[in-house]
Structure formats: C-alpha cells, structure tokens
C-alpha cells in the first residue's frame, strides 16, 4: 500500500500546484475544481513530455518526468502571481469552502485506498488482456523513446492506443515506483476518480440549481452520481441475479443458468445465442476485472472534459449590446482563445492516442454543449448562435488534430470503414440493459421541455426550449440526448474491423455504450433528485420507482467483488500488489528466467519465444519483461497491423528457428529479426515438439539455465 500513498501524495502536490489554472477553468465551482485539478496536474505535464519525447527533444526518463512536472508547477506560480497582481481571487482554501475541499480529499483517499486494498486479492497480471496491458507498460519502462517497441512485433513500434499505459508509466517514473505495483495503482486511481469527479460535478450542478451555497441535497445527489458511474451495474444484474426464477424464460436463460458478474456485459447476442454477439461493458466491471485498457484509463480524462463542459456552460453571459462594444480581437479571444475552448481541443487531441473512440464521442458531446450554451444566452438569433457554434466546433477539431500529430503521423489506422448494421438488438434485450436510463431521461426531457414551451411568451417553441429552461436542466438534457444517441448508433451503423463474423457490432457497441453508461450515471443522479423533489405527484412516483431500480443496481459491485476477490478479505490474508508474483505458481518453470531477464537485460533487444494465439499463455516472457519478441498474440497483431502475409511469415520463421537442423539457416533468420536472446521453456517445447537443444545452444552463449528452461544470448 506504500505505492498507493506515494501516488496519493504526488497527486495532492500536483493538484494543489495546478489550482491556479483550475481556478480559471472552474472559476464558478465552489471548490475551484479541487478534484479536477489532480487530473489536470497529471494530464498537462504528461502530454507535453509525450510531445517532447516523440519529437526526440527529451528522453523518456524519470529526470524528464520531474523536469516537465516542475515546469508545470512554475507556470502555475506565474499564473498565481499574475492574477494576484490584478486583484483577482487566487486563494481557494477559504473558511467558506475549506470543509468541502477537505471532505472531497478524504473521500478520494478512502476510495483510492479501498480499491487498492481490494486489487491485491486478485493481483496477477494474467488472464483476459492483462498480458497486453502490463507488457505495454513494461516496454515503456525500458524505452527512452516513444512510441515504445511493440512487445509482439519485434523491430516495430506499438501501433495501438497506448496513451493510458503511457500516463501510468509517466506517474511510475515520476514517483520512482515499480510497475509491478503501479499496474494496479493506476487502475484503482481511475476507479477512485470515477467516483469523486462525478460527485464533485453533480454536487455543484445541484447547488447551482438550488441557488444555495449549502443545499442539503447537493452531497447526496453527488454520492448518487459517483455510485451510478463507478459502482452500478445495469438492470440485467438485478433481473438475472435476483429475479431469475420468475424471469428465466423472459431473459432467454436456460434452466441451469448461474449468474456470473461478466454476464451483464455479454447479454445482447448471447441469450439466446446468435450470430451477433455484442459487448456492453461499464466501469464497475472494468474496475473489478482489473484490465488496464485504453477506455478504462481514459475515463479520468473523459470525466475532466465533462466537468469542463459544465464550467463552460456557467461562463458569464455576454449580451448582444456588450458584444457590439467589443473589438474584433476581444471577440476572437472570447470565442476561440478562451481557456475552455483551448482545453477542449487539447484533450480531444489527447484522446487520439488514449482512446480514439472517445475523440469522436466527446467531440460531439462538446459541440452539443457549445450549441446549447450559445442558444441559451438568448440575446442573439438562433442562426447566429448555431453559426458561432459551428465555427467553434471546427476550431476545436483543428486544435485536436494539431495536438494529436505526434501520434497520428506514425499510426496506422485499424478501421476498415463504416457499414450499415445488418443485425439489430431485440427490443426486449435493449429494454433490459438500457430501459431504466432511457425511461428516466425521456420523462425528464418531456417534463422540462413542456414547461419551457409554456413559458415561451413571444418566443418560438425552438428558442424557448433553450432560453426558458434552467442552465442545469439544459445541461443535463444535452448529456442525456448524447447518451441516448450512443445507444442507438450501434443499431444503425458499426465500424468495420477484423471481427465481421459473429462479432460485427461488438467493438462499436462496446466503446460507444461504455461512455453512454458514464453519461447516464451523471444524468440519472440529477434527474432522480429532480423527480423526488418535484411538486408533480406523477414525477414523484416516477422518482420512487426509478430510484429503487437505480439503487438496486449498486448491488452489482458487491456481487462482482465477492465473485472475483473472494469473501475472505481480511488483513491477515493480504497477498500484496505485485502483479508478477503469480509467476511462481502459474509458470514456476519460467519465473526464474523472467527474473533474470528483468534484472540483467537493459534496453529493448528482441527475444525469441514461441508464437501463440491471443488470450493464451504464450508470450508470457515478452509481456512480463517488456522485451519485444518476433511475433506475439496473432489476432491482436492482425487487428493492429492488418498484414496477415507478414504475420504468417514471421510465424513460420519463428517455428523454423526452433525446429531447423541447419545452423546457418537459423543464424540467417536470427539476423533477419535482430534477435538477441533465444528463450526455451515448457511452452516452446509444447508448441514445436522435441527441440534440438544442442543446436540452439550452439547459436550463442547460454546465459541462464535451470532444469529444462534456458536462455541463449546471440553475439553480434
């Protein structure tokens, strides 16, 4: 747990240091964006170091990480003094908001420690795609250049969205900690932030709506938002895990069906089984499972952007009369160079290499918020507001494209185009998974829209929807519509990839609905409180019913944790956070050899190990050391590269080296891929049969040997 505390202290320092900038971005938040400043303090130094490393200006070393972080802190000191000289508010920890900030920090720390404690009870970086996640981190720990070498495609750089693992390694190098622990600490950090950031956002939204500095409902609605985003499941969990006896036939499950917590993420297309299997994951499942994927790590940046969209909505209104008095330069500064617009461009650019799907999703969300804000001002024609929003959207897109250039210039896209969906989810299954948020959001939209239209006066219905609605209701309505659209899109179109047969819509639905779930969680907390405190009896009853359903989904986190981590979580059985400790049990014949490679090999020389299928035990050496092998998990590289001819050639060459009887041929193939170490273990013998150990050892110097496992170093 020491690593967790080191990271917490680092984030406390970075967050406090970046508060001058955060106070500008979140100027109308009572806490000044205290929790959001932590993400700013990681994202901005991390991004600028990434640019400098990709450009070859700085090496990716701990010294560079510290240097860039210090530069970020100094810049914030300059911002502090500049604002102080202008007489602007710079001190955020006042008596008025001090208790709030302290409470938020305590909540964050407790969640961070709690998730980290749980992670230790299933700490192995083994199973699902953990080999890939850990291997990317291990590769970047070894490398001083970016993008780092691809662990499963020797001689080439990573061709995937590696940004999430990059930021994990950035913090690891910054704090001089080990990836054996930080692999988990990074994901538990995201889990904690996925609670406290929605909490801070929705608490502020409700406080603004109530127009009281200390609304009694603000903290509870914030807690609801945090739980809805980071701990809830969908209604499939409620129905399948608790009401199965009565609903077995309705849900499509067999009589002998037993609920397992991943089932709620693999329901559409599986029950009953069909040729259109899909994925509809959500954050709670990701946090428990323990994968460190792009969409998981990017969640903290996504929530920062969502928070900034509300801060943008809260900017002071500029009337038509005031705008006429502004010079052209002042108008440009206000519309295109103000901090929120610039940060929207920067972060959507970051999304290119952290999770490209989120770039497309949140570019639309940002544009929706910008349109709503410009129409809400009400002092301008709707044509002017829409035109201004369109230009701002183009400017944000151009900024994001510029920010992403270090990634896009070397990245080979994996997308094969967009196609119309040939298969569609049944209405019943959509209702099970998405019925609750859809009902809540639809009722809310109809309610607030009808009230706004009635107040329109001499306005048309279109303008009244924006101008006569409260800013908070309009903001939540915009997020709700975006979330609903993300659910509908996979029913209409999908992005083509290599999984056309049987899983055509899986990746599209996965990435879009993951963010839909996040946005729905924020919306449902606010909407539920609106219903429960509404004068209308119908809305109050709706709130009671939907509230019971929403709270019942929170039980998912308990079910999943007990199933994955076990029921005995006492301190006396605490196993520790080391993600590689499992090697002694799972791969006892390889553990010592992998330790030798980690302790004695510097840089990123290519190793030779047996090729294997994705999700198999093969490539355990490259994954746990970060050393690139000639070819690893075949299907993953097929997805990332698309060149099956070269993949098949590499696969055949690896087999040829292990089985060839000609020393000269083996040497030629080793030179072809610049192999430095040949690894021979149980899986190599399993893959290629009886090996000529004498010949393989003669190709270089045996630097490690224990039982039937040995490593040969090739002299060059």
Structure in a nutshell:
The chain has 716 residues and is mainly alpha-helical. The protein has helices at residues 2-17, 19-25, 34-54, 62-85, 95-119, 130-142, 163-175, 179-210, 218-230, 235-242, 244-251, 283-289, 294-313, 320-324, 328-335, 339-354, 356-376, 382-403, 405-408, 427-454, 461-467, 471-492, 500-503, 506-532, 537-553, 555-565, 583-586, 588-600, 620-625, 634-641, 644-659, 663-672, 682-688, 693-698; strands at residues 418-420, 493-495, 606-608, 675-680, 701-706, 709-713.
Description:
It is a single chain. The chain is built from 34 helices and six strands. Helix 6 (130-142) packs across helix 7 (163-175) and helix 17 (356-376) runs antiparallel to helix 18. Strands 3-4-6-5 form a four-stranded mixed beta sheet, sandwiched between helices. The chain is globular, with a radius of gyration of 27 Å. The protein has helices at 2-17, 19-25, 34-54, 62-85, 95-119, 130-142, 163-175, 179-210, 218-230, 235-242, 244-251, 283-289, 294-313, 320-324, 328-335, 339-354, 356-376, 382-403, 405-408, 427-454, 461-467, 471-492, 500-503, 506-532, 537-553, 555-565, 583-586, 588-600, 620-625, 634-641, 644-659, 663-672, 682-688, 693-698, and strands spanning 418-420, 493-495, 606-608, 675-680, 701-706, 709-713. The longest helix has 32 residues, at 179-210. Helices cover 66% and strands 4% of the residues. Strand 5 (701-706) and strand 6 (709-713) form a beta hairpin. It has 716 residues and is mainly alpha-helical. It starts with a helix and ends with a strand.
């Amino acid at each position: 747990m020491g690593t967790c505390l080191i990271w917490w202290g680092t984030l406390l320092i970075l967050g406090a240091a970046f508060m001058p900038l955060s106070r500008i971005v979140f100027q109308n938040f009572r806490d000044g964006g205290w929790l959001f400043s932590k993400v700013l303090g990681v994202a901005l130094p991390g991004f600028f170091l990434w640019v400098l490393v990709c450009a070859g200006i700085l090496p990716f070393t701990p010294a560079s990480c510290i240097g860039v972080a210090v530069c970020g802190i100094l810049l914030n000191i300059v911002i502090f003094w500049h604002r102080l000289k202008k007489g602007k508010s710079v001190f955020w920890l006042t008596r008025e908001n001090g208790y709030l900030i302290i409470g938020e920090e305590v909540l964050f720390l407790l969640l961070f420690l709690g998730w980290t404690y749980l992670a230790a009870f299933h700490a192995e970086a083994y199973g699902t795609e953990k080999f890939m996640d850990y291997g990317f981190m291990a590769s970047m720990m070894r490398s001083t250049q970016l993008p780092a070498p691809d662990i499963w495609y020797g001689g080439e750089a990573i061709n995937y969205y590696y940004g999430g693992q990059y930021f994990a390694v950035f913090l690891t190098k910054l704090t001089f900690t080990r990836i054996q622990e930080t692999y988990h600490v990074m994901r538990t950090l995201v889990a904690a932030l996925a609670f406290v950031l929605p909490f801070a956002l929705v608490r502020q939204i409700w406080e603004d709506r109530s127009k009281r500095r200390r609304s009694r409902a603000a903290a509870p609605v914030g807690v609801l938002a945090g739980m809805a985003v980071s701990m809830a499941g969908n209604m499939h969990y409620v129905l399948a895990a608790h009401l199965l006896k009565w609903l077995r036939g309705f849900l499509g499950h067999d009589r002998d069906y037993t609920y397992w917590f991943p089932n709620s993420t693999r329901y559409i297309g599986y029950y009953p089984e069909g040729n259109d299997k899909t994925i509809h994951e959500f954050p709670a499942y990701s946090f428990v499972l323990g994968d460190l994927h792009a969409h998981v790590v990017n969640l903290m940046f996504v929530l920062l952007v969502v928070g900034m969209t509300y801060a943008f909505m809260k900017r002071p209104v500029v009337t038509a009369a005031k705008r006429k008095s502004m010079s052209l330069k002042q108008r440009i500064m206000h519309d295109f160079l103000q901090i929120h617009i610039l940060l929207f461009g920067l972060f959507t650019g970051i999304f290119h290499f952290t999770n490209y799907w989120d770039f497309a999703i949140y570019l639309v969300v940002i544009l929706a918020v910008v349109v709503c804000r410009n129409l809400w001002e009400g002092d301008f024609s709707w044509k002017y507001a829409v035109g201004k929003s369109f230009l701002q959207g183009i400017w944000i897109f151009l900024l994001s494209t510029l920010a992403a250039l270090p990634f896009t210039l070397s990245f080979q896209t994996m997308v094969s185009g967009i196609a119309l969906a040939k298969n569609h989810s049944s209405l019943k299954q959509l209702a099970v998974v998405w019925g609750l948020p859809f009902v809540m959001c639809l009722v809310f939209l109809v309610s607030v829209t009808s009230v706004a239209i009635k107040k329109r006066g001499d306005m048309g219905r279109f303008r009244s929807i924006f101008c006569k609605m409260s800013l908070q209701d309009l903001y939540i309505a915009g997020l709700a519509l975006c979330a609903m659209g993300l659910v509908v899109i996979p029913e209409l179109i999908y992005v083509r990839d290599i999984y056309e047969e049987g899983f055509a819509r899986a990746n599209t639905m996965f990435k879009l609905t993951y963010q839909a779930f996040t946005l729905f969680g924020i919306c449902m907390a606010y909407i539920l409180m609106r219903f429960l405190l509404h004068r209308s009896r119908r809305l109050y009853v709706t709130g009671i019913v939907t509230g019971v359903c929403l709270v019942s989904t929170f039980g998912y986190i308990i079910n999943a944790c007990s199933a994955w981590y076990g029921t005995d979580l006492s301190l006396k059985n605490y196993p520790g956070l080391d993600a590689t400790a499992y090697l002694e049990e799972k791969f006892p014949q390889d553990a010592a050899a992998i330790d030798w490679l980690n302790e004695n090999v510097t840089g990123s020389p290519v190793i030779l190990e047996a090729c294997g299928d994705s999700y198999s035990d093969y490539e355990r050496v490259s994954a746990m050391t970060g050393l690139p092998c000639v070819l690893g998990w075949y299907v993953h590289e097929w997805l990332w590269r698309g060149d099956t001819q070269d993949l098949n050639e590499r696969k055949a060459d690896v087999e040829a080296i292990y089985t060839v009887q000609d020393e000269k041929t083996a040497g030629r193939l080793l030179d072809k891929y610049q192999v430095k170490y040949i690894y021979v273990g149980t899986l190599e013998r399993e893959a290629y049969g009886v090996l000529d150990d004498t010949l393989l050892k003669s190709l270089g110097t045996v630097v490690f040997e224990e039982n039937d496992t040995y490593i040969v170093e090739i002299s060059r």
